[in-house]
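Whether sequence alone determines local backbone shape is best considered at the level of individual chains. We regard such an encoding as a compact summary of how the chain folds. The sequence in question and its structure tokens are set out directly beneath this paragraph.
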Amino acid sequence: MKYVPHAYQTYATEFILTHPVAAILLQMGLGKSVITLTAMKTLFERRAIHRALVIAPLRVARDTWPEEIEKWDHLKGLTYSVAVGTAAERKAALRRDVQIHIINRENLCWMMASGLPLAYDMIVVDELSSFKNWQSKRFRALLQMRPTVGRIAGLTGTPTGNGLMDLFAEYRVLDLGERLGRFIGRYREAYFLPDRRNAQQVFTWKPRPGAEEEIYRKIGDITVSMKSVDYLKMPECIFSTVHVHMDAEERKKYETLKEKLFLQVREDQLVDAKNAASLCGKLAQMAGGACYTEDGSVARIHDRKLDALEDLIEATGGHPLLIAYWYRHDLERIQERFPQVRNLLTARDFQDWKAGKIEAAAIHPASAGHGLNLQQGGNTLIWFGLTWSLELYQQMNSRLWRQGQTADTVVIYHIVTKDSIDEQILAALGRKDRTQESLINAVRANLG
């Protein structure tokens, strides 16, 4: 296929070429992969680099990057190997004399410990936000490799999924601490104040007055951001909330668990929340209609969301729809009520969805977040169970609301249990989005 870049794509490619360290904050659908590959092809031709490593989520490493290389005419000649599969298959792929090695982020630690002679001139981190935890093994593995590599490009559409604290680790691996510092403690002291705390233990931090602007100023020289709605002809996206209500008996069970942290559903079924984090999860499950018990069985509480889902399926009149679930028992109850719902897991499942062969599909946000193009299969998404993760939430929505969606509108429904933790989750996603929006606006590309 002939590549005719938009102005913003040319701008982003040139930014990577002229910035050895680059943070490319491209919202979903703007073509991160082809922009970066175009820059890499030029760098190879100029002999500025000789071998590059792409680190990406598993499905994206296995499917999306190879598809992009094969898809575009101007990328013909780029050689690559994909290091996924068994340890023997990964080693064989990394030993191949090609220009680009592609590996999934989960195997980065394995690669560093493999003993293979690894020499790269450039690293591309697809979904830089997955390195936001400065204590994670993958962060440390990348940081170990980073000083010997001259060029790095970090790609993401969700840089601050959980707030400004995420930026420390992301930029630490990019510029080795030049802009935001080398130590998380000093970063916190400089830009944050204790928020929720218990004596000497601080649970959450809040930005100091003016900290946001100062952080954005410091990272602005290596950062370019773009919003899809600014550069693409996007369909209208309509968000709708469908409320369901528990009856008195169901509400009593919910409130009992909330107050006492345990609930005896039946003689042989005990729901036990051992701490606050566990309680949040149990309440979210109960809002959905079922809950895992202490022995791993499933206690059914209500079918309110299933009833609402039935109404939505009927209202769509047979048009394809995608259902996002969070807990395994949600999927089981959905498929028990609606046998036609197919869980998207394999490459064949995704192909059939995109071909319009599936009327109703279920998908877990964690397995579908990054890089999957599902817009050909339908334009309706239903959130049966919500996630606290802004990154997964936005990535899931963007599977349908993106460039290439042929429908005039994309409709995203949230089935929310009234007066439950569902409402808190939805509100939290809105608050996080405002922080992320501020960052993207602060360093947004100006194409003149």
